[in-house]
Amino acid sequence: MDFELSDDQVALRDGIRSLCEGRFPIKRVREGFDRAVHAELADAGVFSLRSDGFGVADAAVVFEELGRAVVPGPLVWLYLAHDRVDGIAGGLEVAGRKPPWMVEHLDVLDTLLVVDESGVRAVAAGTVAGAVPVARPLDPLTPVHRVEQLPKGEELGDCELVAQWRREGAVVTAAFLVGVAQACTDRSVAYAKERRQFDRPVGSFQAVKHILADMRVRAEVARASVHAAACTLDDPDVGDVARAVAGAKMLAGEAAITNGKAATQVHGGMGFTWEVDVHLYLKRAWVLDTVLGSVDDHADAVAATLPSP
Amino acid sequence: MDLRYSESDEAFRAGLRTWLERTLPELPPRPGWSDWGGRRRYDTDWQRRLFDAGYAGLSWPKEYGGRDASPSEQLVFLEETTRARAPYVGVNFVGSLHAGPTIMTEGSDEQKARYLPPVLRGDEVWCQGFSEPGAGSDLAALRTSAVRDGDHYVVNGQKIWCSFAHIADYGELLVRTDPDAPKHRGISWLILPMDTPGIDVRPIDTVIGSSEFCEVFLDDVRVPVANRVGAENDGWRITQVTFAFERGTAFVSELVEARRMAEDLAVLARDPAHRHELGHVAAELDAVWALTKRNVSRAARDGSPGDGALMVKLAYSESRQKLGDLSVRVLDRSALDIDNEFVVERLRTLALTIAAGTSQIQRNIISERLLGLPREQPWTSN
User: Potential cystine with B20: which of A69, A184, B84, B249 (Cβ 3.0-4.6 Å)?
Assistant: First the structure.
């Protein structure tokens, strides 16, 4: 047992971090996801990690960095569907929901992967009719269309593929959310050191620094949970896969949302402005909590693994 | 990253499991909550059995009677003893997880040879003497004085929250040896034989009723200078060593126990709202366990558990209290009996966010040491 990042994983993390710092500064991120962003991430091997021989734990390391940079796009679906569809794929989970379907990134998609309990269908994005763009999407970097009816599309996989995508996709999304939670912490700590009131940095006040300490701990606990889930997917003998995955998505979602709100609070009035980036993290966290199971869904899923009366 | 235990870890597990299956049925019935004489006998008997089987002082070096086990073997030990519902460390807590490791790190060769083996064998029980009525979170403000008189210190003062003082043979005692130095620089760490004349121990009734906590009054108590651990006035640094052990390792066994209690509570929880919350808490406890594995992996690589150890105590104690709150709600009116296992735990765990550094102190430490935030400045009127 060695639950630290391996040397290769440290190199992978550092590589993707410097890619994000160089190619995806917040100024460009604010312009949203497009074919150029897709091409650069694809070139970097972000979507082909599994077919290139990397494990889920490696993917978790990569997606945490993408989350820190709050890189936009249907990244998890591109990762999941890499060896099954060409071009740009996005996903839509319909199980338990009703139209209108809220479809992300439709304008830039080649294929929409429609996921329900029984299987995955691939719908050519050009065949989706009557899509109405949401004028002001919650997350400005995640454009959304309302769609009343979906074409049937082609069957891509059965319930086994759905189960596999839900497990692996939840862990990779959770890793992205840990990155969001960490970025909120880092930005808030930096701001609290810089911002002065009453002739001292606001980060010296215990009322503020305790919020920051909690943010740090929340991100660290969620990270450990996500890494444990990823290791369990890579080596199912070491634990209970269902429980590890659900716990990871739950804690990462909660950490990202809670830290997003805390970051807004620590930034004071500036945190409430469009100009300061904090809202982009919080809004992405809210978007991703609706993907591959919410905090609430996964708390129930963990409970289902516990003994019953 | 890899969570698979090695073959030698699994061999260790198999041997331990066999031993537990054979040994646990031989144990006498557990004494009642407030039967302190009985609890001392029971816990030290368990310690002796561990020692005889080679499972005492897992992390301690062989030269002091320990096993020198790998960190992952220590995790396996906790997993298996909890799974088998073996006794907890109990009255051996201060000796094996607090004073013992401190003496091992900072004590003289004579002190190590004299004090460590009896702790491992369960022959001697230790208590803590750190906090004072006027020195809680601000521990360095302690005033219990130790004045040199030949080859003795004469100690006067009052200690509080001294775990197990009413049944202990020795105490780890913090005293002020230089009243004129800045408060962190005038403290020394002494080994106090509890049978020395002038010591008055009074148990503290807590919200649970009887407890391991005591007040200790020290009136002209003569302690040999040879009982000082480390240099005179270097006690604050040594105390930080003690705390590093406490915060880093002493909570790990509690964490494993809490995960087992979550499973036990699930058997009683029918209401979907309760089960939802229980799922939430169980995931938190799983995650803190994963963080512990990370700390252990880090310690195995570079000797220090790193940042994670600071965070485990805060995260664990908050999650454990959520579990406690939930357990009382699940029990409904069965909770009106303090001797219900879950109720007594709910009450006991109120102390988790207070003892060993309150959660507020932990947040100060995390924000100042890990995040590099400035200390809070005193206000001046303007």
Answer: B84
Q: How many CB pairs under 8 A join A and B?
A: 185
Q: Assign a CATH topology to domain B7-88.
A: Butyryl-Coa Dehydrogenase, subunit A; domain 1 (1.10.540)
DSSP, collapsed to helix, strand or coil, labels residue B211 as: coil
Q: How far B55 CA lies from chain A's nearest CA (Å)?
A: 21
Among A158-167, A175-184, B75-84, the minimum mean pLDDT is found in B75-84
**Does the pLDDT value for residue B298 go beyond 90?**
no
Annotated active-site residue B263? The verdict is no
Contacts of B267 in chain A (CB under 8 A): 307-309
How close, in Å, is residue A76 to chain B by CA atoms?
21
CB contact under 8 A, A304 and B296: no
Topology classification of domain B251-370: Butyryl-CoA Dehydrogenase, subunit A; domain 3 (1.20.140)
Task: Find residue B193's DSSP bridge partners.
Answer: B170
User: What pLDDT band is residue A25 in, cutting at 50, 70 and 90?
Assistant: very high
CATH number of A161-304: 1.20.140.10
CB A64 within 8 A of CB A179: yes
- Spatial separation of the C-alpha atoms in residues A288 and A293, rounded to whole Å: 9
Question: Is the separation of the CB atoms in A252 and A222 below 8 Å?
Answer: yes
Two tokens, residue A160: 């086994």
pLDDT at B308 over 90: no
Which tokens is A258 given?
A: 């809670």
Query: Average pLDDT for residues A30-55, to the nearest whole number?
Result: 97
- pLDDT (0 to 100) of residue B59: 84
Residue type, A107: D
- Looking at domain B126-233, what is its CATH homologous superfamily? Butyryl-CoA Dehydrogenase, subunit A, domain 2 (2.40.110.10)
User: Measured between beta carbons, which residues in chain B are less than 8 angstroms from residue A6?
Assistant: 1
Contact B373 A204 (CB under 8 A): yes
DSSP H or E segment with residue A101: strand A101-104
Judged against a pLDDT cut of 60, whether residue B382 lies above it is answered with no
CB atoms near residue B89 (< 10 Å): 18
The DSSP bridge pattern shows strands B170-176 and B126-129 to be parallel
The closest alpha carbon to B198, from B176, B222, B175, B174, belongs to B222
Query: Which residue shows structure tokens 């004072």?
Result: B132
Structure tokens belonging to residue B62: 């062989």
pLDDT digits (tens, 9 = 90+) for B243-292: 776 666 667 888 988 999 999 999 999 999 999 999 999 999 999 999 99
Which of A61, A220, A232, A294 should we substitute to test contact with B (largest number of B Cβ atoms within 10 Å)? Answer: A220
Q: Cα–Cα distance between A13 and A63 in angstroms, integer?
A: 9
A309 touches chain B (CB under 8 A): yes
Point out the catalytic residue in the list B124, B132, B246, B277.
Answer: B246
Instruction: With CB atoms and an 8 Å threshold, state whether B311 touches A303.
Output: no
Question: Which residue from B9, B280, B360 is facing A250, i.e. has the nearest CB?
Answer: B280
Extents of the domains making up chain B: 7-88, 126-233, 251-370
Beta-carbon separation of B3 and A308 below 8 A: no
Handedness of CA B106, B112, B115, B117 (dihedral sign): positive
Residue ranges of domains in chain A:
7-79, 88-158, 161-304
Inter-chain residue contact B367 with A203, CB threshold 8 Å: yes
For residue B13, list chain A residues with Cβ-Cβ distance below 8 A.
none
pLDDT of residue B241: 78
